[in-house]
Amino acid sequence: MADDEQLPERHINIHFSPELMAGVYANFANVSFSDYEFTVTFARVDHEVEDEEIPGVVVTRVNLAPRFARELADALQDALSKWSTQEGIRNLPEGGGSSGTGA
Questions:
Q1: CB within 10 Å: which end of the chain, N or C, has fewer?
Q2: Distance between CA atoms of 69 and 54, rounded to whole angstroms?
Q3: What string of DSSP letters covers 16-84?
Q4: What is the rounded CA–CA span in Å between residue 31 and residue 46?
Q5: Distance (Å, rounded) from C-alpha 64 to C-alpha 73?
Q6: Per the structure, how many domains does the chain have?
Q7: What is the pLDDT of residues 28-72, one digit of tens each?
Q8: 32: in domain
Q9: Could you tell me which residue, 91 or 87, shows the higher pLDDT?
Q10: Residue 60's domain spans which residues?
């Protein structure tokens, strides 16, 4: 293929059940890896229990190819950056003045 030729644009068409659409809640994740893949285990943990052992339930486990793990990490970093900016704007002090003492 010549350098000036471009591949046609491709779209991924993903379908899933209403149960999957609802998603699951997780407030804990563990990441492990091998030579061939990364594994992310998501769990729901009850942090309010005061026992030595904190109860938790695994809600899902996802195995990722290393290349996709990097793409996911980049996408999460981008989303977190955008969220932080949005939250920073939303939580600005009212009045718009400077926080200095003035002269």
A1: C
A2: 28
A3: --HHHHH----SEEEEEE-SS-EEEEEEEE-TT--SSSPPEEEEEEEEE-HHHHHHHHHHHHHHHHHHH
A4: 19
A5: 11
A6: 1
A7: 999 999 999 999 999 999 888 888 888 899 999 999 999 999 999
A8: yes
A9: 87
A10: 24-90
Distance CA 75, CA 64 (A): 14
Question: Is 46 within the bounds of a domain?
Answer: yes
Q: With left for phi above 0 and alpha for psi between -120 and 50, is residue 73 left, alpha or beta?
A: alpha
Map tokens 């942090």 to a residue. Answer: 47
Q: Is 17 or 66 the better-scoring residue by pLDDT?
A: 66
Tell me the two tokens of residue 61. 């486990």
Amino acid at 29: A
Token pair 């993903």 is found at: 14
Q: Which amino acid is at 90?
A: R
Cβ-contact 51, 39 below 8 angstroms: no
Closest CA to 42 of 65, 18, 23, 16: 23
